[in-house]
Amino acid sequence: MSYLQFEKSQMTNLEESLKREIIRTNRRGAYSSSTIIDCNTRKYHGLLVVPIQEKGNENHVILSSLDETVIQHGAEFNLGIHKYPGDTFSPNGHKYIRGYSWEKIPTTLYRVGGVILRKELIFQHFHDRILIRYTLVEAHSVTTLRLKPYLAFRAVNQLTHENSAVDMDFAAVDNGIKTRMYDGFPNLFMQTSKKTEYIFSPNWYKGIEYPQEQAQGYDYREDLYVPGYFEFNIKKGESVIFSAGLEEVKTRRLKKIFDEEVEVHQPRSGFTACLKSAAHQFHFERGGEHYIVAGYPWFKVRARDLFLSLPGLTLAIDEEQRFKDVMATAIKAIDCFIDNKPLTVDIEEIDSPDVLLWAVWCIQQYSVLVSREEALRLYFPTVRKIVDFIRHDNHPRMDVRENGLLFVYGRETPATWMNAMVNGKPANPRSGYVVEINALWYNALECCAHLHEFLGMDDKAKVYHRLAEKAGNSFKETHLNHHGYLLDYVDTNHTSWSVRPNMLIATAMKNSPLTKAEKKSIFDICTRELRTPKGIRSLSPKSGGYNPIYEGENRDAAYHQGTVWPWLLGIYLETCSNLFGKSGLSFIDRCLIGLEEEMFYHCIGTLPEMFDGNPPFHGRGALSYALNVAAILRVNKMLTKFYNY
Question: pTM value?
Protein backbone atom coordinates (compact mmCIF):
# COMPACT_ATOMS: atom_id res chain seq x y z
CA MET A 1 0.00 0.00 0.00
CA SER A 2 1.31 3.44 -0.94
CA TYR A 3 1.97 6.08 1.71
CA LEU A 4 0.14 8.69 -0.39
CA GLN A 5 -3.11 6.97 -1.20
CA PHE A 6 -6.73 8.11 -1.47
CA GLU A 7 -9.80 5.94 -1.67
CA LYS A 8 -12.83 6.26 -3.92
CA SER A 9 -14.88 8.08 -1.27
CA GLN A 10 -12.20 10.78 -0.95
CA MET A 11 -11.86 11.22 -4.69
CA THR A 12 -15.57 11.40 -5.57
CA ASN A 13 -16.34 13.86 -2.76
CA LEU A 14 -15.52 17.26 -4.28
CA GLU A 15 -15.35 18.86 -0.84
CA GLU A 16 -12.41 16.56 -0.17
CA SER A 17 -10.72 16.16 -3.54
CA LEU A 18 -10.73 19.78 -4.77
CA LYS A 19 -8.77 20.83 -1.69
CA ARG A 20 -5.96 18.42 -2.46
CA GLU A 21 -3.50 19.58 -5.11
CA ILE A 22 -0.40 18.14 -6.73
CA ILE A 23 2.66 19.59 -8.37
CA ARG A 24 5.37 18.02 -10.52
CA THR A 25 8.42 19.95 -11.72
CA ASN A 26 11.46 19.45 -13.91
CA ARG A 27 15.02 20.78 -13.85
CA ARG A 28 14.19 23.54 -16.33
CA GLY A 29 11.80 25.45 -14.08
CA ALA A 30 8.63 24.06 -15.68
CA TYR A 31 5.84 22.39 -13.77
CA SER A 32 2.55 20.52 -14.00
CA SER A 33 -0.12 21.12 -11.38
CA SER A 34 -3.79 20.49 -10.67
CA THR A 35 -6.00 18.84 -8.08
CA ILE A 36 -5.87 15.10 -7.50
CA ILE A 37 -8.98 14.70 -9.70
CA ASP A 38 -7.44 16.87 -12.46
CA CYS A 39 -9.95 19.69 -12.05
CA ASN A 40 -8.03 22.97 -12.23
CA THR A 41 -9.01 25.38 -9.46
CA ARG A 42 -6.30 28.03 -9.96
CA LYS A 43 -5.18 30.03 -12.97
CA TYR A 44 -1.70 28.72 -12.08
CA HIS A 45 -2.82 25.14 -12.65
CA GLY A 46 -1.93 23.45 -15.91
CA LEU A 47 -0.78 20.17 -17.33
CA LEU A 48 2.21 21.84 -19.00
CA VAL A 49 3.42 25.16 -17.58
CA VAL A 50 6.79 26.36 -18.87
CA PRO A 51 9.06 29.42 -18.67
CA ILE A 52 9.40 30.96 -22.12
CA GLN A 53 12.72 32.63 -22.80
CA GLU A 54 11.30 34.99 -25.43
CA LYS A 55 8.86 36.28 -22.83
CA GLY A 56 11.33 37.01 -20.06
CA ASN A 57 11.38 33.41 -18.79
CA GLU A 58 7.95 33.98 -17.25
CA ASN A 59 5.89 30.84 -16.70
CA HIS A 60 3.10 30.25 -19.21
CA VAL A 61 0.25 27.75 -19.18
CA ILE A 62 0.51 26.02 -22.55
CA LEU A 63 -1.61 22.90 -22.08
CA SER A 64 -4.24 23.54 -19.43
CA SER A 65 -5.76 20.06 -19.23
CA LEU A 66 -6.53 16.90 -21.14
CA ASP A 67 -9.93 15.20 -21.10
CA GLU A 68 -10.07 11.45 -21.61
CA THR A 69 -13.17 9.74 -22.99
CA VAL A 70 -13.69 5.97 -22.90
CA ILE A 71 -15.86 4.72 -25.77
CA GLN A 72 -17.49 1.29 -25.89
CA HIS A 73 -20.36 0.15 -28.13
CA GLY A 74 -20.84 3.78 -29.20
CA ALA A 75 -21.35 4.96 -25.59
CA GLU A 76 -19.02 7.74 -24.41
CA PHE A 77 -17.81 8.15 -20.82
CA ASN A 78 -15.86 11.39 -20.31
CA LEU A 79 -13.35 11.20 -17.45
CA GLY A 80 -12.60 14.94 -17.38
CA ILE A 81 -13.98 17.57 -15.01
CA HIS A 82 -14.19 21.38 -15.16
CA LYS A 83 -16.02 23.91 -13.05
CA TYR A 84 -18.53 26.22 -14.70
CA PRO A 85 -20.80 29.01 -13.33
CA GLY A 86 -23.40 28.12 -10.76
CA ASP A 87 -21.33 25.43 -9.05
CA THR A 88 -21.75 23.27 -12.12
CA PHE A 89 -19.13 20.62 -12.81
CA SER A 90 -19.00 19.09 -16.26
CA PRO A 91 -18.20 16.45 -17.22
CA ASN A 92 -18.30 14.52 -13.95
CA GLY A 93 -15.38 12.22 -14.61
CA HIS A 94 -14.43 12.10 -10.93
CA LYS A 95 -17.33 9.72 -10.27
CA TYR A 96 -15.45 7.03 -12.23
CA ILE A 97 -12.33 7.24 -10.05
CA ARG A 98 -11.71 4.20 -7.89
CA GLY A 99 -8.45 5.26 -6.29
CA TYR A 100 -5.39 7.49 -6.42
CA SER A 101 -1.85 6.85 -5.23
CA TRP A 102 1.59 8.39 -5.56
CA GLU A 103 4.51 6.09 -4.89
CA LYS A 104 6.98 7.06 -7.59
CA ILE A 105 4.50 8.78 -9.91
CA PRO A 106 0.87 9.95 -9.57
CA THR A 107 -1.51 7.14 -10.54
CA THR A 108 -5.29 7.30 -10.97
CA LEU A 109 -7.50 4.26 -11.43
CA TYR A 110 -10.83 4.66 -13.28
CA ARG A 111 -13.66 2.16 -13.64
CA VAL A 112 -16.35 2.55 -16.30
CA GLY A 113 -18.63 -0.46 -16.30
CA GLY A 114 -16.35 -3.37 -17.17
CA VAL A 115 -13.46 -1.08 -18.17
CA ILE A 116 -10.61 -0.41 -15.73
CA LEU A 117 -8.18 2.26 -16.93
CA ARG A 118 -4.98 3.28 -15.16
CA LYS A 119 -3.48 6.72 -15.76
CA GLU A 120 0.10 7.59 -14.73
CA LEU A 121 1.81 10.97 -15.15
CA ILE A 122 5.46 11.89 -15.22
CA PHE A 123 7.44 15.04 -16.06
CA GLN A 124 10.73 14.63 -17.91
CA HIS A 125 13.65 15.91 -15.88
CA PHE A 126 15.46 17.89 -18.56
CA HIS A 127 12.78 18.44 -21.20
CA ASP A 128 9.62 20.53 -21.10
CA ARG A 129 7.46 17.49 -21.69
CA ILE A 130 4.66 15.83 -19.75
CA LEU A 131 4.06 12.13 -20.34
CA ILE A 132 0.82 10.31 -19.53
CA ARG A 133 0.65 6.53 -19.70
CA TYR A 134 -2.78 4.94 -20.13
CA THR A 135 -3.06 1.21 -19.42
CA LEU A 136 -6.25 -0.71 -20.11
CA VAL A 137 -6.26 -3.05 -17.13
CA GLU A 138 -9.60 -4.67 -17.89
CA ALA A 139 -12.10 -4.62 -20.76
CA HIS A 140 -14.58 -7.11 -22.23
CA SER A 141 -15.09 -5.52 -25.62
CA VAL A 142 -13.48 -3.18 -28.11
CA THR A 143 -12.42 0.02 -26.35
CA THR A 144 -11.55 3.40 -27.85
CA LEU A 145 -9.79 6.19 -26.01
CA ARG A 146 -10.29 9.82 -27.00
CA LEU A 147 -7.96 12.58 -25.76
CA LYS A 148 -9.10 16.20 -25.96
CA PRO A 149 -6.51 18.92 -25.14
CA TYR A 150 -7.51 22.29 -23.64
CA LEU A 151 -5.02 25.00 -24.65
CA ALA A 152 -4.34 28.33 -22.94
CA PHE A 153 -1.00 29.79 -24.19
CA ARG A 154 -1.00 32.55 -21.56
CA ALA A 155 1.05 33.81 -18.63
CA VAL A 156 0.23 32.10 -15.35
CA ASN A 157 -1.13 35.29 -13.78
CA GLN A 158 -3.47 36.07 -16.66
CA LEU A 159 -6.60 34.53 -18.16
CA THR A 160 -7.54 33.94 -21.78
CA HIS A 161 -10.85 34.49 -23.56
CA GLU A 162 -12.27 33.63 -26.94
CA ASN A 163 -10.63 35.76 -29.62
CA SER A 164 -10.05 35.84 -33.36
CA ALA A 165 -6.25 36.06 -33.12
CA VAL A 166 -5.87 32.35 -32.49
CA ASP A 167 -3.81 30.50 -35.06
CA MET A 168 -5.80 27.34 -35.81
CA ASP A 169 -3.20 25.86 -38.15
CA PHE A 170 -1.49 22.63 -37.24
CA ALA A 171 0.99 20.30 -38.87
CA ALA A 172 1.30 16.57 -38.68
CA VAL A 173 4.30 15.10 -36.87
CA ASP A 174 5.19 11.55 -35.84
CA ASN A 175 1.94 10.11 -34.39
CA GLY A 176 0.52 13.53 -33.61
CA ILE A 177 0.50 17.23 -34.39
CA LYS A 178 2.25 20.49 -33.59
CA THR A 179 0.36 23.73 -33.09
CA ARG A 180 0.52 27.09 -31.33
CA MET A 181 -2.22 29.55 -30.52
CA TYR A 182 -0.27 32.78 -31.12
CA ASP A 183 2.88 34.12 -32.76
CA GLY A 184 5.78 34.50 -30.37
CA PHE A 185 5.07 31.19 -28.65
CA PRO A 186 6.84 27.89 -29.21
CA ASN A 187 4.98 25.03 -30.86
CA LEU A 188 3.24 22.48 -28.71
CA PHE A 189 3.92 18.93 -29.88
CA MET A 190 1.21 16.43 -28.93
CA GLN A 191 2.03 12.83 -29.83
CA THR A 192 1.18 9.27 -28.86
CA SER A 193 3.24 6.10 -28.68
CA LYS A 194 0.97 4.32 -31.17
CA LYS A 195 -0.61 5.42 -34.40
CA THR A 196 -3.58 7.63 -33.68
CA GLU A 197 -6.21 9.55 -35.59
CA TYR A 198 -6.34 13.29 -35.06
CA ILE A 199 -9.69 14.95 -35.72
CA PHE A 200 -9.52 18.71 -36.25
CA SER A 201 -12.57 20.17 -34.50
CA PRO A 202 -11.77 23.66 -33.17
CA ASN A 203 -13.95 24.98 -30.38
CA TRP A 204 -13.89 27.31 -27.39
CA TYR A 205 -15.04 26.04 -23.99
CA LYS A 206 -16.30 29.15 -22.25
CA GLY A 207 -16.73 30.17 -18.66
CA ILE A 208 -14.39 27.71 -16.97
CA GLU A 209 -13.97 28.89 -13.37
CA TYR A 210 -11.14 28.75 -10.85
CA PRO A 211 -12.59 28.91 -7.32
CA GLN A 212 -9.22 29.51 -5.64
CA GLU A 213 -8.88 32.75 -7.60
CA GLN A 214 -12.45 33.73 -6.84
CA ALA A 215 -11.82 33.29 -3.11
CA GLN A 216 -8.87 35.70 -3.31
CA GLY A 217 -10.83 38.38 -5.14
CA TYR A 218 -9.13 37.87 -8.52
CA ASP A 219 -10.64 37.35 -11.95
CA TYR A 220 -11.49 33.68 -12.06
CA ARG A 221 -13.27 32.83 -15.31
CA GLU A 222 -11.70 32.02 -18.65
CA ASP A 223 -12.27 30.38 -22.03
CA LEU A 224 -10.03 27.57 -23.25
CA TYR A 225 -9.37 26.57 -26.84
CA VAL A 226 -9.72 22.95 -27.93
CA PRO A 227 -8.26 22.42 -31.43
CA GLY A 228 -9.57 18.87 -31.84
CA TYR A 229 -8.95 15.45 -30.37
CA PHE A 230 -6.92 12.25 -30.70
CA GLU A 231 -8.58 8.87 -30.94
CA PHE A 232 -7.24 5.31 -30.94
CA ASN A 233 -8.26 1.79 -29.98
CA ILE A 234 -6.63 0.27 -26.94
CA LYS A 235 -6.49 -3.43 -26.05
CA LYS A 236 -6.70 -5.09 -22.66
CA GLY A 237 -3.23 -5.05 -21.11
CA GLU A 238 -1.96 -2.44 -23.58
CA SER A 239 -0.28 0.80 -22.52
CA VAL A 240 -0.32 3.94 -24.68
CA ILE A 241 1.70 7.05 -23.84
CA PHE A 242 0.57 10.58 -24.63
CA SER A 243 3.32 13.20 -24.84
CA ALA A 244 2.93 16.98 -24.75
CA GLY A 245 6.08 19.07 -25.03
CA LEU A 246 7.88 21.91 -26.71
CA GLU A 247 10.02 19.60 -28.84
CA GLU A 248 9.12 16.72 -31.10
CA VAL A 249 9.94 13.29 -29.78
CA LYS A 250 10.43 10.03 -31.64
CA THR A 251 7.34 8.20 -30.51
CA ARG A 252 8.94 4.77 -30.67
CA ARG A 253 11.14 5.95 -27.78
CA LEU A 254 8.30 7.09 -25.52
CA LYS A 255 8.01 3.80 -23.63
CA LYS A 256 11.76 3.76 -22.91
CA ILE A 257 11.74 7.43 -21.90
CA PHE A 258 8.81 6.85 -19.56
CA ASP A 259 10.43 3.83 -17.92
CA GLU A 260 13.76 5.64 -17.50
CA GLU A 261 12.05 8.59 -15.85
CA VAL A 262 10.17 6.32 -13.44
CA GLU A 263 13.43 4.59 -12.53
CA VAL A 264 15.14 7.77 -11.31
CA HIS A 265 12.17 8.86 -9.20
CA GLN A 266 12.40 7.98 -5.51
CA PRO A 267 9.34 6.45 -3.84
CA ARG A 268 7.33 8.71 -1.57
CA SER A 269 7.15 6.00 1.05
CA GLY A 270 6.94 8.17 4.17
CA PHE A 271 7.15 11.67 5.63
CA THR A 272 10.89 12.12 5.11
CA ALA A 273 10.80 10.49 1.67
CA CYS A 274 8.06 12.92 0.59
CA LEU A 275 10.09 15.89 1.80
CA LYS A 276 13.19 14.61 0.02
CA SER A 277 11.25 14.27 -3.24
CA ALA A 278 9.79 17.73 -2.71
CA ALA A 279 13.31 19.10 -2.14
CA HIS A 280 14.35 17.93 -5.60
CA GLN A 281 11.47 19.85 -7.16
CA PHE A 282 12.97 23.24 -6.27
CA HIS A 283 16.19 22.71 -8.25
CA PHE A 284 16.49 23.83 -11.84
CA GLU A 285 19.17 24.76 -14.32
CA ARG A 286 19.31 27.54 -16.88
CA GLY A 287 22.22 28.63 -19.06
CA GLY A 288 24.61 26.35 -17.21
CA GLU A 289 23.72 27.87 -13.84
CA HIS A 290 22.07 26.06 -10.93
CA TYR A 291 19.20 27.62 -9.00
CA ILE A 292 16.62 27.01 -6.31
CA VAL A 293 13.17 28.44 -6.91
CA ALA A 294 11.57 29.81 -3.74
CA GLY A 295 8.31 27.97 -4.27
CA TYR A 296 5.63 26.86 -6.67
CA PRO A 297 3.61 27.86 -8.54
CA TRP A 298 4.42 31.59 -8.62
CA PHE A 299 7.74 32.28 -6.90
CA LYS A 300 11.04 32.91 -8.65
CA VAL A 301 14.65 32.61 -7.46
CA ARG A 302 14.99 34.86 -4.42
CA ALA A 303 18.38 35.28 -2.79
CA ARG A 304 17.22 35.09 0.83
CA ASP A 305 15.16 31.96 0.23
CA LEU A 306 18.05 30.39 -1.67
CA PHE A 307 20.55 30.81 1.18
CA LEU A 308 18.07 29.85 3.88
CA SER A 309 16.87 26.72 2.12
CA LEU A 310 20.05 25.50 0.39
CA PRO A 311 21.52 23.51 3.33
CA GLY A 312 18.23 21.71 3.99
CA LEU A 313 17.55 20.95 0.34
CA THR A 314 21.04 19.53 -0.23
CA LEU A 315 23.30 18.85 2.75
CA ALA A 316 20.50 17.53 4.96
CA ILE A 317 19.86 14.80 2.39
CA ASP A 318 23.55 14.17 1.66
CA GLU A 319 23.68 15.92 -1.70
CA GLU A 320 26.88 17.93 -1.30
CA GLN A 321 27.51 18.44 -5.02
CA ARG A 322 24.16 20.15 -5.49
CA PHE A 323 25.05 22.56 -2.70
CA LYS A 324 28.30 23.40 -4.47
CA ASP A 325 26.58 23.85 -7.83
CA VAL A 326 23.96 26.25 -6.49
CA MET A 327 26.44 28.11 -4.31
CA ALA A 328 28.74 28.62 -7.30
CA THR A 329 25.91 30.43 -9.06
CA ALA A 330 24.94 32.36 -5.92
CA ILE A 331 28.51 33.59 -5.37
CA LYS A 332 28.39 35.16 -8.83
CA ALA A 333 25.40 37.19 -7.65
CA ILE A 334 27.19 38.13 -4.43
CA ASP A 335 30.30 39.26 -6.31
CA CYS A 336 28.30 41.29 -8.81
CA PHE A 337 26.44 43.09 -6.01
CA ILE A 338 29.52 43.79 -3.88
CA ASP A 339 31.56 44.88 -6.91
CA ASN A 340 28.67 47.07 -8.09
CA LYS A 341 28.36 45.28 -11.42
CA PRO A 342 25.25 44.16 -13.33
CA LEU A 343 23.97 40.75 -12.26
CA THR A 344 24.99 37.93 -14.56
CA VAL A 345 22.66 35.34 -12.99
CA ASP A 346 18.90 35.22 -12.42
CA ILE A 347 18.74 35.75 -8.65
CA GLU A 348 16.43 38.42 -7.27
CA GLU A 349 16.68 40.61 -4.14
CA ILE A 350 20.41 40.14 -3.59
CA ASP A 351 20.48 43.71 -2.28
CA SER A 352 18.15 43.09 0.68
CA PRO A 353 20.02 43.95 3.91
CA ASP A 354 19.88 40.50 5.50
CA VAL A 355 20.73 38.45 2.41
CA LEU A 356 24.54 38.55 2.58
CA LEU A 357 24.38 37.63 6.26
CA TRP A 358 22.20 34.63 5.47
CA ALA A 359 24.83 33.67 2.88
CA VAL A 360 27.43 33.50 5.67
CA TRP A 361 25.05 31.37 7.74
CA CYS A 362 24.54 29.08 4.74
CA ILE A 363 28.30 28.58 4.37
CA GLN A 364 28.51 27.85 8.10
CA GLN A 365 26.10 24.96 7.61
CA TYR A 366 28.46 23.51 5.00
CA SER A 367 31.31 23.80 7.48
CA VAL A 368 29.30 21.98 10.17
CA LEU A 369 27.68 19.29 8.03
CA VAL A 370 30.52 18.59 5.59
CA SER A 371 33.98 19.90 6.45
CA ARG A 372 35.47 23.04 7.92
CA GLU A 373 38.60 22.56 5.84
CA GLU A 374 36.57 22.26 2.65
CA ALA A 375 34.46 25.28 3.62
CA LEU A 376 37.62 27.31 4.10
CA ARG A 377 39.02 26.24 0.75
CA LEU A 378 35.82 26.97 -1.16
CA TYR A 379 34.17 29.84 0.67
CA PHE A 380 36.56 31.69 2.99
CA PRO A 381 37.15 34.52 0.46
CA THR A 382 33.39 34.99 0.11
CA VAL A 383 32.80 35.16 3.89
CA ARG A 384 35.59 37.69 4.36
CA LYS A 385 34.43 39.71 1.36
CA ILE A 386 30.88 39.91 2.71
CA VAL A 387 31.90 40.88 6.25
CA ASP A 388 34.38 43.52 5.09
CA PHE A 389 31.89 44.92 2.59
CA ILE A 390 29.39 45.46 5.38
CA ARG A 391 31.76 46.63 8.12
CA HIS A 392 33.21 49.28 5.81
CA ASP A 393 29.71 50.72 5.30
CA ASN A 394 29.44 49.81 1.63
CA HIS A 395 25.96 48.29 1.77
CA PRO A 396 23.53 50.85 0.34
CA ARG A 397 20.69 49.91 2.68
CA MET A 398 22.39 49.75 6.07
CA ASP A 399 25.39 51.06 7.95
CA VAL A 400 27.44 50.25 11.03
CA ARG A 401 26.72 52.62 13.93
CA GLU A 402 29.04 53.66 16.74
CA ASN A 403 27.65 50.92 18.97
CA GLY A 404 28.77 48.27 16.46
CA LEU A 405 25.26 47.35 15.36
CA LEU A 406 23.80 47.52 11.88
CA PHE A 407 21.18 50.18 11.31
CA VAL A 408 18.82 49.15 8.51
CA TYR A 409 16.69 51.35 6.26
CA GLY A 410 13.40 49.53 5.82
CA ARG A 411 10.65 52.14 5.94
CA GLU A 412 10.18 52.40 2.17
CA THR A 413 11.38 48.97 1.00
CA PRO A 414 11.14 45.76 3.06
CA ALA A 415 14.47 44.88 4.65
CA THR A 416 13.75 41.36 5.90
CA TRP A 417 11.74 38.20 5.16
CA MET A 418 8.66 40.05 6.46
CA ASN A 419 8.33 41.71 3.07
CA ALA A 420 4.59 42.11 2.39
CA MET A 421 3.57 45.36 0.70
CA VAL A 422 0.26 47.18 1.16
CA ASN A 423 -0.52 50.25 -0.97
CA GLY A 424 3.10 50.44 -2.10
CA LYS A 425 4.52 50.49 1.44
CA PRO A 426 5.91 47.73 3.67
CA ALA A 427 3.12 46.19 5.75
CA ASN A 428 5.77 45.68 8.45
CA PRO A 429 8.24 48.59 8.14
CA ARG A 430 10.97 46.94 10.21
CA SER A 431 13.71 49.52 10.26
CA GLY A 432 16.58 50.66 12.47
CA TYR A 433 18.17 48.02 14.67
CA VAL A 434 16.43 44.85 13.47
CA VAL A 435 16.79 41.90 15.82
CA GLU A 436 17.66 39.04 13.44
CA ILE A 437 19.88 41.19 11.23
CA ASN A 438 22.07 42.13 14.18
CA ALA A 439 22.02 38.55 15.44
CA LEU A 440 23.23 37.48 11.99
CA TRP A 441 25.81 40.28 12.05
CA TYR A 442 27.27 39.11 15.36
CA ASN A 443 27.32 35.55 14.02
CA ALA A 444 29.07 36.63 10.79
CA LEU A 445 31.75 38.57 12.67
CA GLU A 446 32.52 35.64 14.96
CA CYS A 447 32.45 33.24 12.02
CA CYS A 448 35.00 35.37 10.18
CA ALA A 449 37.17 35.54 13.33
CA HIS A 450 37.12 31.75 13.79
CA LEU A 451 38.02 31.15 10.15
CA HIS A 452 41.03 33.44 10.49
CA GLU A 453 42.07 31.64 13.69
CA PHE A 454 41.85 28.28 11.96
CA LEU A 455 44.17 29.62 9.26
CA GLY A 456 46.64 30.85 11.90
CA MET A 457 45.87 34.51 11.18
CA ASP A 458 45.43 35.44 14.85
CA ASP A 459 46.01 39.19 14.51
CA LYS A 460 43.25 39.52 11.94
CA ALA A 461 41.01 37.24 13.98
CA LYS A 462 41.31 39.62 16.94
CA VAL A 463 39.95 42.46 14.82
CA TYR A 464 36.74 40.57 14.10
CA HIS A 465 36.45 39.31 17.69
CA ARG A 466 36.61 42.88 18.97
CA LEU A 467 33.94 43.98 16.50
CA ALA A 468 31.78 41.04 17.53
CA GLU A 469 32.22 41.78 21.25
CA LYS A 470 31.15 45.37 20.73
CA ALA A 471 28.16 44.37 18.63
CA GLY A 472 27.20 41.63 21.10
CA ASN A 473 27.16 43.97 24.09
CA SER A 474 25.13 46.54 22.17
CA PHE A 475 22.76 43.85 20.93
CA LYS A 476 21.73 42.94 24.46
CA GLU A 477 21.54 46.57 25.56
CA THR A 478 19.32 47.41 22.58
CA HIS A 479 17.09 44.36 22.17
CA LEU A 480 16.89 42.45 25.46
CA ASN A 481 14.07 43.80 27.60
CA HIS A 482 13.03 43.27 31.22
CA HIS A 483 10.27 40.85 30.19
CA GLY A 484 12.88 38.35 29.05
CA TYR A 485 12.46 38.53 25.28
CA LEU A 486 13.97 40.58 22.45
CA LEU A 487 12.56 43.74 20.93
CA ASP A 488 11.79 43.09 17.27
CA TYR A 489 13.30 46.35 16.06
CA VAL A 490 14.35 49.68 17.50
CA ASP A 491 14.08 52.64 15.14
CA THR A 492 14.84 56.30 15.68
CA ASN A 493 11.29 57.15 16.76
CA HIS A 494 9.79 53.73 17.39
CA THR A 495 10.45 50.59 19.38
CA SER A 496 8.56 47.39 18.52
CA TRP A 497 7.55 45.45 21.63
CA SER A 498 5.56 42.93 19.60
CA VAL A 499 6.33 39.31 20.37
CA ARG A 500 7.59 37.97 17.05
CA PRO A 501 9.58 34.88 16.06
CA ASN A 502 12.54 36.79 14.63
CA MET A 503 14.19 36.74 18.06
CA LEU A 504 14.44 32.94 17.76
CA ILE A 505 17.09 33.45 15.08
CA ALA A 506 19.34 34.98 17.74
CA THR A 507 18.90 31.89 19.92
CA ALA A 508 19.66 29.40 17.12
CA MET A 509 22.81 30.99 15.70
CA LYS A 510 26.06 29.06 16.09
CA ASN A 511 27.51 32.29 17.50
CA SER A 512 25.15 34.24 19.73
CA PRO A 513 25.70 37.02 22.27
CA LEU A 514 22.94 35.54 24.45
CA THR A 515 23.51 33.39 27.51
CA LYS A 516 21.82 30.00 27.85
CA ALA A 517 19.43 31.46 30.44
CA GLU A 518 18.49 34.30 28.11
CA LYS A 519 17.89 31.85 25.25
CA LYS A 520 15.73 29.72 27.55
CA SER A 521 13.59 32.71 28.48
CA ILE A 522 13.04 33.61 24.82
CA PHE A 523 12.30 29.99 23.95
CA ASP A 524 9.69 29.74 26.71
CA ILE A 525 7.90 32.91 25.61
CA CYS A 526 7.82 31.72 22.00
CA THR A 527 6.52 28.33 23.18
CA ARG A 528 3.66 29.95 25.08
CA GLU A 529 2.67 32.56 22.50
CA LEU A 530 3.89 31.52 19.06
CA ARG A 531 4.10 27.72 18.76
CA THR A 532 1.29 25.88 16.95
CA PRO A 533 0.96 22.34 15.54
CA LYS A 534 1.93 23.69 12.08
CA GLY A 535 4.84 25.92 12.96
CA ILE A 536 5.55 29.28 14.57
CA ARG A 537 3.25 32.30 14.42
CA SER A 538 4.61 35.49 12.90
CA LEU A 539 2.99 37.50 15.71
CA SER A 540 1.67 36.69 19.15
CA PRO A 541 -2.13 36.76 19.65
CA LYS A 542 -1.40 39.02 22.62
CA SER A 543 0.30 41.64 20.45
CA GLY A 544 -1.54 44.44 18.70
CA GLY A 545 -2.55 43.90 15.09
CA TYR A 546 -2.88 40.12 15.33
CA ASN A 547 -4.59 38.93 12.14
CA PRO A 548 -4.30 35.14 11.79
CA ILE A 549 -6.44 34.41 8.72
CA TYR A 550 -4.75 34.77 5.33
CA GLU A 551 -7.57 35.10 2.82
CA GLY A 552 -9.53 37.61 0.76
CA GLU A 553 -8.48 40.92 -0.70
CA ASN A 554 -6.78 42.10 2.51
CA ARG A 555 -4.61 39.02 2.93
CA ASP A 556 -1.34 40.91 2.36
CA ALA A 557 -1.98 42.87 5.54
CA ALA A 558 -2.23 39.53 7.39
CA TYR A 559 0.83 37.99 5.73
CA HIS A 560 3.08 38.40 8.78
CA GLN A 561 0.53 39.38 11.41
CA GLY A 562 -0.14 35.99 12.94
CA THR A 563 0.11 33.50 10.10
CA VAL A 564 2.11 30.36 10.87
CA TRP A 565 5.38 29.52 9.10
CA PRO A 566 6.84 25.99 9.24
CA TRP A 567 10.38 27.15 8.41
CA LEU A 568 10.45 29.02 11.71
CA LEU A 569 9.71 25.72 13.44
CA GLY A 570 13.11 24.59 12.21
CA ILE A 571 14.75 27.57 13.95
CA TYR A 572 12.69 26.93 17.08
CA LEU A 573 13.57 23.23 17.23
CA GLU A 574 17.24 23.97 16.62
CA THR A 575 17.12 26.20 19.69
CA CYS A 576 15.37 23.41 21.58
CA SER A 577 18.13 21.00 20.62
CA ASN A 578 20.84 23.43 21.70
CA LEU A 579 19.16 24.03 25.05
CA PHE A 580 18.04 20.55 26.02
CA GLY A 581 20.13 18.12 23.99
CA LYS A 582 18.86 14.54 23.94
CA SER A 583 16.24 15.26 26.58
CA GLY A 584 14.42 17.42 24.04
CA LEU A 585 14.14 14.74 21.35
CA SER A 586 10.68 13.49 22.26
CA PHE A 587 9.38 17.07 22.26
CA ILE A 588 10.91 17.67 18.82
CA ASP A 589 9.28 14.49 17.50
CA ARG A 590 5.89 15.62 18.80
CA CYS A 591 6.30 19.01 17.12
CA LEU A 592 6.65 17.34 13.74
CA ILE A 593 3.44 15.31 13.96
CA GLY A 594 1.27 18.24 12.87
CA LEU A 595 3.33 18.66 9.72
CA GLU A 596 3.42 15.01 8.75
CA GLU A 597 -0.35 14.96 8.36
CA GLU A 598 0.02 17.82 5.87
CA MET A 599 1.48 15.34 3.39
CA PHE A 600 -2.15 14.37 2.68
CA TYR A 601 -3.66 17.85 2.43
CA HIS A 602 -3.27 21.12 0.52
CA CYS A 603 -0.54 20.04 -1.93
CA ILE A 604 0.10 16.39 -1.20
CA GLY A 605 3.63 15.26 -0.45
CA THR A 606 5.00 18.71 0.37
CA LEU A 607 4.44 21.74 2.62
CA PRO A 608 2.58 24.93 1.70
CA GLU A 609 3.87 28.43 2.27
CA MET A 610 2.02 29.10 5.52
CA PHE A 611 -1.00 28.31 7.69
CA ASP A 612 -3.65 30.36 9.42
CA GLY A 613 -2.66 31.31 12.95
CA ASN A 614 -5.83 29.95 14.55
CA PRO A 615 -7.40 26.47 14.43
CA PRO A 616 -8.05 24.57 12.22
CA PHE A 617 -4.83 26.04 10.75
CA HIS A 618 -5.75 25.95 7.06
CA GLY A 619 -2.82 25.76 4.64
CA ARG A 620 -2.38 28.95 2.60
CA GLY A 621 -0.25 30.56 -0.06
CA ALA A 622 2.09 28.76 -2.43
CA LEU A 623 1.49 25.04 -2.93
CA SER A 624 5.08 24.02 -2.19
CA TYR A 625 7.56 26.25 -0.37
CA ALA A 626 11.31 25.65 -0.34
CA LEU A 627 12.03 27.21 3.06
CA ASN A 628 9.54 24.96 4.83
CA VAL A 629 10.66 21.73 3.19
CA ALA A 630 14.31 22.60 3.82
CA ALA A 631 13.80 23.49 7.47
CA ILE A 632 12.09 20.21 8.35
CA LEU A 633 14.73 18.23 6.48
CA ARG A 634 17.37 20.00 8.57
CA VAL A 635 15.48 19.01 11.72
CA ASN A 636 15.36 15.40 10.51
CA LYS A 637 19.11 15.50 9.91
CA MET A 638 19.61 16.84 13.42
CA LEU A 639 17.44 14.08 14.88
CA THR A 640 19.31 11.42 12.94
CA LYS A 641 22.61 12.62 14.38
CA PHE A 642 21.21 12.51 17.91
CA TYR A 643 19.69 9.06 17.52
CA ASN A 644 22.89 7.68 15.99
CA TYR A 645 25.13 9.23 18.64
Answer: 0.94
